Amino acid sequence: YSQVKSGDFPALVERAEGADFASGTFGEDRETVQLKDYGVKVSFSSQMIVNDDMSVITRLTSETGAATADLENQLAYAALTTNKTMNDTIALYHASHGNLGTAGAITASSVAEAYKLMRMQTSTDGLRKLNLQPTILVCGPDKEAEALQFFAPVNATQTSGVNIYSGRMQVVVDAEITGNQYYFISPRIDGIVCYRLEGQEAPSIESQINFANNNLELKVAHAFAAAPMDWRAIVKNNGEA
User: Fold this and answer.
1) pTM for this prediction
2) Which of 38, 138, 219, 230 has a CA between 20 and 30 Å from the CA of residue 77?
3) Is the pLDDT of residue 238 over 90?
4) Helix (H, G, I), strand (E, B) or coil at 187
5) What confidence score (pLDDT) does residue 146 get?
């Protein structure tokens, strides 16, 4: 599957009196992602079914949704943290993409740098400044306390040493991110995108009785992919060494 990113709408050009309007063109860019099939098959013997006094089988089958959500979470964060080579042959996080901050702790300096990098991003054809603003900071457990403390809402009675970024960022923490790296995200454009088959957002669950042994066989299948689509929506900081 290829997701097309349209180029800029042509800039408006002054029209001289009596002249025709100027013709404009726009380009495009694209990233490719391939859905993959995931699944598992389990079997319950007829004896297990008869003796299932604790309703273990019912509980296990009800957990298929949680298992699918865990898979999607793992793949989505892998797409965020893996420095994939994009369609322009440059790594997702690279100085040429203007989305790699100076490694360091979460401070006013590193946050200000992320704001600047994101605001200066240009559109696909490079004609316009996007003026993006990060509103989400994503990190792992190693950075959780530091992030929450830095972005905590300011005390209304505080008169000095005020953190101008207090309360301006939603902090998202996930154990799939290890180490000191952290990411600034703007939701205005698609950065990391998740894909499912149309009409099959939930896992497919099928069951049958094995004719040969009366076992109950259960199959859970899910098609899913997650991939970076636009580096402009993310600024990465590798954190302090």
Assistant:
1) 0.82
2) 219
3) yes
4) coil
5) 95
In three-state secondary structure terms, 97 is: helix
How far is 80 from 229, CA to CA, in rounded Å? 10
Q: What gap in Å lies between CA 193 and CA 230, rounded to an integer?
A: 9
> 118: pLDDT confidence band, cut at 50, 70 and 90?
very high
Tokens of 177: 């991110």
For residue 172, give the nearest of 191, 156, 159, 157 by alpha carbon.
Answer: 191
Q: What confidence category does residue 128 fall into, taking pLDDT thresholds of 50, 70 and 90?
A: confident
Alpha helices in the chain (DSSP H): 46-50, 56-62, 64-81, 108-119, 141-150
Do 227 and 199 touch, CB atoms closer than 8 A? no
Residue 37: burial class (beta carbons within 10 Å; 0-12, 13-18, 19+): exposed
Parallel, antiparallel, or unpaired for β 136-139 and 170-173? parallel
Two tokens at 109? 């300096």
Residue 85 CB partners (closer than 8 Å, separation 6+): 91, 92
Residue 37 and residue 75 in contact, taking contact as beta carbons nearer than 8 Å: no
Taking residues 169-184, what's their average pLDDT?
Answer: 97
Least confident of 41-55, 101-115, 186-200, 208-222: 41-55
- Per-residue b or e along 113-132, where b marks 16 or more CB atoms closer than 10 Å to that residue's CB: bbbebbeebebbbeeeebeb
Mean pLDDT throughout 37-50?
85
Look at the block and give the residue holding tokens 């989305």.
Answer: 99
Rounded to whole angstroms, the Cα distance separating 176 from 139 reads 9
In angstroms, the CA 90 to CA 117 distance is 17
Q: How many CB atoms lie within 10 A of CB 54?
A: 8
